[in-house]
Amino acid sequence: MRTADPDPKGSAGSGQATRAPARKTESAAVRYLPTVIPLPLGPTTAFIVRDHSVLLIDTGNPGDETTILAAMRKAGIRPDEISLILVTHGHPGNYGSADALRELTGAPVAVHEADAGAMRLGFDRLRFPAGIIPRLMGFAGGGKTAPGSSGVEPDIVVRGIADLAAFGVRGRIVPTPGHTSGSISVLVAGGTAIVGDLLSALFPGGRPRLPFRMDDPAAARRSLRTLLAFGPERVYGAHGGPWPGTEVLRRFGNGR
Asked: Is the pTM of this model over 0.85?
C-alpha cells in the first residue's frame, strides 16, 4: 500500500515544480493462505480447501454430489480443479458420493488403510458405547451394511503423516484414530484443522466433545493430544464447529 510523502519537496508558490512521489513497486508476489469452505450436507459437513489446487474432504451420502457441485460452482471452482478427494474415515456418510465425484472430477479418492476395507464393502462398522444417551437415541452396537451405500475402491491408501504438496495444497494428513481405527485429520497452512468425526457437537454452536460412536475412546483422546501439539488456531468438525483451538485445548489438552 502506498502512503503519501509527509514532506513533499517543493510547495505551491515556490516557483519550483513539485515532484510526484516515486511509486513503490512490489518486490514479491502477494501470497494467500488456503481457503477452507464448509459444505453443509444435512447431518454432516464436507469441506473444500482451495489453494494452488482444490482438495475435497469427504463427500457426504450417496446423491450429495449434486449439492457439492452446486457449491463448487457458486465458489467459482470447476470440477477439474479438484486434485484429490480425501475421506476422513470409513463411514458411508463421509464417502457415499466419492465414486460419483471421482467420475465427475477425475480426482483420485484417498483413505487411510485401516478404513479402506470398510469403504470397499460399503460397511458401517462403527460402534456405540454402552450409555444412556445412545440408548435413548436408539443406537445399537455392531456393524452393518449402510442402506443405499455401495463400496468405493480407493485410488490412494494413506499409512502415516502425508504432505499434500503433491496435490497443490499446503497442508498435511495426520492419522487420528479413535472414532475409527483409520480416522484422519487435515492440518491446513494458516492454522486450520479439519478433524472429521474426531470431535462433534450436540447442537449447532455447541462445545466440542468426543462423539458417541467410537472404536477406541482412549485412542481418540491420544489423537486429540497429538493434533493439539501442532497448535491449530481453528478446528472444524463434520458435526460441529468451528471451534477456537484454545477452546479445544482447554477441554482436551489435559487428557480428558
From this structure: no
In this structure, are residues 209 and 241 in contact, taking their beta carbons and an 8 Å threshold?
no
Per-residue pLDDT, 126: 52
Q: Which residues contact 89 (CB under 8 A, 6 or more apart)?
A: 111, 112, 115, 179, 180, 182, 183, 184, 196, 197
Q: Tell me the C-alpha distance between 28 and 24, whole Å.
A: 12
CATH domain 35-252 topology: Metallo-beta-lactamase; Chain A (3.60.15)
Provide the residue ranges of all domains of the chain, joining segments of one domain with +: 35-252
The owner of cell 494467500 is 32
What gap in Å lies between CA 219 and CA 112, rounded to an integer? 16
Q: Is it the case that residue 236 has pLDDT exceeding 80?
A: yes
Contact indicator for 160, 174 with CB cutoff of 8 Å: no
Per the CB < 8 A criterion, the answer to whether 118 and 157 are in contact is: no
Q: Once rounded to an integer, what is the mean pLDDT over residues 195-212?
A: 92
Angle between helix 245-252 and helix 217-228 axes, rounded to 10 deg: 130
- Cβ-proximal residues to 10 (8 Å cutoff; 6+ apart), any chain: 16, 17, 18, 19
Sign of CA dihedral 72, 193, 202, 216: positive
The residue count of the chain comes to 256
